[in-house]
Amino acid sequence: MCGIIGYVGKQAAGPIVLEGLQRLNYRGYDSSGLAVLDHDGALAVMKRAGKLAELEASLTTPPAGRTGIGHTRWATHGAVSDGNAHPHLSSDGAAIVVHNGIVENYRALRERLAAAGVECRSETDSEVIPQLIGLYLREGHDFDEAFRRVLGEIEGGNAVVAMERRRPERLYAARLGNAGGIVLGVGGDEMFVASDVPALLPHTTLVQPLANGQWARIGAAETTIRDLDGAEVALAPQRVSMDPVAVAKGPYTHFMQKEIMEQPRALSDCIRGRAHVNPAGVSLEDVRLSDDQLRSLRRVLIVGMGTSMHAGMVGRYYMESLAGLPTDCDNASEFRYRAPLLGPETLVVAVTQSGETVDTLGAMAQVRDHWGAPRVAITNVEESEATRLAAGSAIYLRCGPEIGVASTKTFMASMAALYVLACRIGAARGHLRGATLERAIDALLTAPGIVDRTLAQAEICREVGRVCQDVEHMLYLGRGLQYPLAMEGALKCKEISYIHAEGYPAGEMKHGPIALIDRSMPVVALAPRDPLYDKMWSNIQQVQARDATVIAVGTEGDAELEAAADVFIPIPACDPLIAPFATAIPAQLIAYYLATARGADVDQPRHLAKTVTVE
Ligand code: AGP
Q1: pLDDT band at residue 334 under the 50/70/90 scheme
Q2: Mean pLDDT of the chain
Q3: Can you tell me whether residue 120 is helix, strand or coil?
Q4: Which of 374, 187, 380, 359 is nearest to 269 (CA)?
Q5: Where does the pLDDT of residue 477 fall: very low under 50, low under 70, confident under 90, or very high at 90 and above?
Q6: What pTM was estimated for this model as a whole?
Q7: What is the position in ligand 1's atom list of the atom closest to the CA of 410?
Q8: What is the 337 CA–ligand 1 centroid distance (Å)?
Q9: Ligand 1 atom 5: the closest Cα is on which residue?
């Protein structure tokens, strides 16, 4: 969850590290720090609790030196304080470390250090890493060996970047487990390392992620990558297609706003070349499953977390109706600790925009190791661990970087990717053919335009945000395909506006939640014209009978709903399978405008991080 950046080369490291931290600021942002090492071994370390601006304000002159590391923290062990911010150093300052993940055995390691006369100065688990490296250096090991030994001793998912005080011309980096990525960036005669690609983009698009269990000694002239057994791994960087301009906010106030507005393009990019009408069909070259394999499937299981799981819940409907297969969608953190029965006839689809969410990766590893079921990853990050765990069978979302902590465009694209995958499976199995396949593809191709037209309702959503900004609770209701959208609207509301919200299947409401409803509870009812419309209409009547303010999202021209609701947000008439793309827009925009009306920090909501790499 923390952000990591490192540089070694001929330029001044301080400004590069600081600029990298600005780009990584969406990962963790409760404190930050950097360390810069000069060629003569002079070391400058600065760290501050609070937003990155606190660190920037404390840097009157950038520290000198051509090697540096930086870190934005999302606290796990130890309070948010200057002392707990990274980098952490060994007591003698010989080893300087930034870390992402959790050293699960840190208590035992602290005791070992204490027995050797080394007292940790912070409350963090991370500090044991430099302290242990320092101990091994004092025992006479070189840094390579000390680093490697410590990697073998720390337990849990961990990503580590380190500097050696005595050898300022190099960095060390390692990835252990699924605590988040480590990506090497290859420049002319300089090297970069970061927790994810956007931090590298202004400098290089030539990148190589470290795989689980790999570590690297990184120098401007020479970089060596090894696995934990010492076997060398080739440095073979790939060019990534991410556009550095896409990482900028442009004319928008917030990244989330920008990312909501660019959803028609994100959807088109995701669908382009994959869904075509003439001849009707889909092309998914990156999904390396043959027609025979697809025909042998008996079941689909979709896993993900948060917004990605909500996309998966929509995907469940797509799989059932378009692929004709029984489908479940499960929360990855629950799935991975159960004992489900899977086999080669179950396709497991993992949805994760970052490709690095620890629970989703854990679920995929579980599937690979215990059941050998075929896997597909739906992700926005090429070369992510999710892709590797899916044995390269991936659908890339092609959204460009998503910086807002609240996922928006990747939600849209994930639904589209699931739709395309369902069509691919349905066509292979003969469930969709001829005119039905054509209709399904046609419907999907309308989605970008429908989203575009729905964005025109932003003003109504702004007004909802203004009027409802002081409420304490919101209820979101939907049925069928709109139930996951109700969950997603409530999640968005909670995470960025801090208003308590619940998303419920509308039919479930009268089994409990209806007791909460009164005049002070706005209810967002997602009620497009679909086969469950009449049922939804009854549920709206039931909440209205209890005085709730109803904000109805319905099909344009639905005069009856418009007249009945307190606020009516129209979406274009569309195929019910496509309606989630449209209703996602008011779900996102209401949360956005609630948050801005309340003065909340939309792009950096409290306690959250973009990529969740700890359990
Ligand atoms: C969504 O707004 C949240 N930021 C969060 O629920 C997110 O969707 C979840 O952490 C999963 O992330 P992933 O898609 O990167 O796996």
Answers
A1: very high
A2: 94
A3: coil
A4: 380
A5: very high
A6: 0.85
A7: 14
A8: 20
A9: 306
> What is the per-residue pLDDT across 65-118, written as a single tens digit (0 to 9) for each?
999 999 999 888 999 999 999 999 999 999 999 999 999 999 999 999 999 999
What does the pLDDT read at residue 387? Answer: 93
What is the rounded CA–CA span in Å between residue 505 and residue 319? 20
Ligand 1: does its nearest atom lie under 6 Å from the Cβ of 208? Answer: no
How far, CA to CA in Å, does 381 sit from each of 34, 247, 304, 396?
A: 26, 14, 15, 7
Whether the CB-CB separation of 522 and 471 falls below 8 Å is answered with yes
Residues serving a catalytic function are: 2, 610
432 Cα: distance to centroid of ligand 1 (angstroms): 32
Q: Which residues contact 45 (CB under 8 A, 6 or more apart)?
A: 33, 34, 35, 87, 89, 96
378 ligand 1 Cβ < 6 A: no
Rounded to an integer, what distance in angstroms lies between the CA atom of residue 153 and that of residue 258?
Answer: 44
Length of the chain measured in residues: 615
Binding site membership of 268 for ligand 1 (Cβ less than 6 Å):
no
**Tokens for 336?**
């991975």
pLDDT of residue 245: 57
CA 588 – CA 27 distance, rounded (Å): 20
CA distance from start to end of the chain: 11
Atom 15 in ligand 1: which residue has the minimum CA distance?
A: 354
Cβ-proximal residues to 606 (8 Å cutoff; 6+ apart), any chain: 498
How close is the Cα of 533 to the center of ligand 1, in Å? 30
Ligand 1 pocket, residue 604 CB under 6 Å = no
Asked whether the predicted pLDDT for residue 440 surpasses 90, the reply is: yes
Run of H or E residues at 300: strand 299-304
| Amino acid sitting at position 365 | A
